[in-house]
Write a structure and sequence with these properties.
There is one protein chain. It contains 6 helices and 11 strands. With about 220 residues, it is an alpha/beta fold. It folds into 2 domains: about 1-105, 3-Layer(aba) Sandwich (Rossmann fold), CATH 3.40.50; about 110-215, 3-Layer(aba) Sandwich (Rossmann fold). The chain is globular. About 40% of the residues are buried. The protein binds 5-O-phosphono-beta-D-ribofuranosylamine. 5-O-phosphono-beta-D-ribofuranosylamine binds near residues 13, 111, 113 and 138.
Length: about 220
Amino acid sequence: MPRTCNVVVLLSGTGSNLQALLDSSQAPGNPAQISAVVSNRADAYGLQRAEAAGVPTAVLSHTDYDGRDAFDAALISAIDGYSPDLVVLAGFMRILTPGFVRHYQGRLLNIHPSLLPQYKGLHTHRRVLEAGDAEHGCTVHFVTEELDGGPLVVQAVVPVDSGDTPDTLAHRVHAQEHQIYPLAVRWFAEGRLTLAGSGQVHLDGQPLPATGHVIRH
Ligand code: GRF
């Protein structure tokens, strides 16, 4: 029986990725267990999902702190109170300070709704359609100080259909997020996924390509 991997999830909104992680943590033999959910917004629906699953929650409003450094210091102390092995950003709509990122180096994951390194930032679905791209997708990556810029772990690629709108595309990509985030978290929890000091991601001891592991649909 592998040892439990304590996961703290940070979110600001709906928390459908949190739900996927909660569901997958029930799978037989999955060592990833969500030990707490932390939000910067008291009205985030993800908090209700956590409570329904019996997972402790904490709310830290950035508006109560004088600047990013003070907020991130309080955030670190709240998170570390749960002794996490892994911290997962699941729609946490805050830019994190370099000090925060360094503190969780190699144990901080994010998911982004694009095929990184393309389309960092917001409104990815609309931007993909405006560019006329044939493919879109989502990416799980280790977090570094560059926004949406860390080493890639896994990508899911979906086709863009001629009739797609930003909403239909978002829906298709979101469904893939709910597959690849639990997959990456489980890999980490099982000790299969690591980030070397050089920035190289390894899966099962083998270096992953710069794209991470790619799943095509
Ligand atoms: C997802 O699209 C994720 O890629 C981005 O934030 C969104 C969170 O969605 N980082 P949800 O709250 O998990 O539904």
